Amino acid sequence: MLLNYTQTGSGPHVILMHGLFGSLDNLNIVAKALAEHFTVTNVDLRNHGLSFHHEVMDYPTMASDVIALMDHLQIEKAHLVGHSMGGKVAMQVAMIDQRRVERLAILDIAPVAYHSRHDSIIAGLQAVEDALTHAKIQSRSEADKIMAQYIEELGVRQFLLKSLAKNEHSKLAWRFNLASICKNYSKVTANINATHSCLCDTLFIKGNNSDYILPEHKDAITQSFSNAKAKVIHGAGHWLHAEKPQSVNRSIIDFLQL
User: Fold this and answer.
1) pLDDT (tens digit, 9 = 90+) per residue, 65-116?
2) C-alpha span between 24 and 42 (Å, rounded)
3) pLDDT score of 258 more than 90
4) pTM for this one?
5) Dihedral of CA 190/176/44/256: which sign?
6) CA angle, corner 26, sides to 25 and 28, nearest 5?
7) What is the C-alpha to C-alpha distance for residues 89 and 66, in angstroms, rounded to an integer?
8) How far is CA 215 from the centre of its chain?
9) How much is the pLDDT for 148?
């Protein structure tokens, strides 16, 4: 099974990978900027977007999906750009076979295990799922009212609702595989399988207002990615590419063109 993807631009290959509960649409603003210089393959990771659903979901498996797509598209080597969970997938690809990776640009995630931080989001998503199952709601606005009981931030709800769409039966449904994500959530928050120190040139781009990359993560980063450096985007949080797109896109392009 191959991942769903879009491909734009021309030049050296770049592969983009989104975060948890997202889809390739979330990185379109990055893809558009990069396509002026690169051939950009923007993917839906397994259990997300229009890609296949599967009960197995861990970083080695998701990285293997990306490598399989590269093989299918005859991409021998590519730059990898990933946000959050997608950043960990990108790091795992490099750990599995760094010969396939030119450079890594990692958006606001570190090679460490994280505590659960999506409990309220998952509760809100499950509440909407239950309402959909019992035909109690028929629109995104109704779903938003349910989610607002669990998720205060409007921007987070709007991000999640992008994945609520009509299925092949013309019924509203989550595009992501909520059941599998919940089952495998501990594997999503876990660290990558870091077996050695990867020598790929790597840029970690942190949102200044985000707590996903902290000073105490520096040792873990340098142990796993010895050629790593950091860039801080001021005035941005975890969704830095949406909040400060020009700064993030410029940082990525400058790094990949070094």
Assistant:
1) 999 999 999 999 999 999 999 999 999 999 999 999 999 999 999 999 999 9
2) 6
3) no
4) 0.97
5) negative
6) 60
7) 8
8) 22
9) 98
Give the active site residues.
Answer: 84, 238
The neighbour count for residue 99, using CB atoms within 10 Å, is 9
Residues 126-171 have pLDDT tens digits of 999 999 999 999 999 999 999 999 999 999 999 999 999 999 989 9
Nearest residue to 217 via CA among 74, 97, 71, 106: 106
Cα–Cα separations (whole angstroms), residue 177 to 48, 51, 109, 180, 198 = 7, 10, 22, 6, 31
Secondary structure (DSSP) of 224-256: HBTTEEEEEETT--TTHHHHSHHHHHHHHHHHH
Q: How far apart are CA 113 and CA 106, in angstroms?
A: 16
Task: Output the six-digit token pair for 134.
Answer: 């019992």
Q: Are 66 and 17 in contact (CB under 8 A)?
A: yes
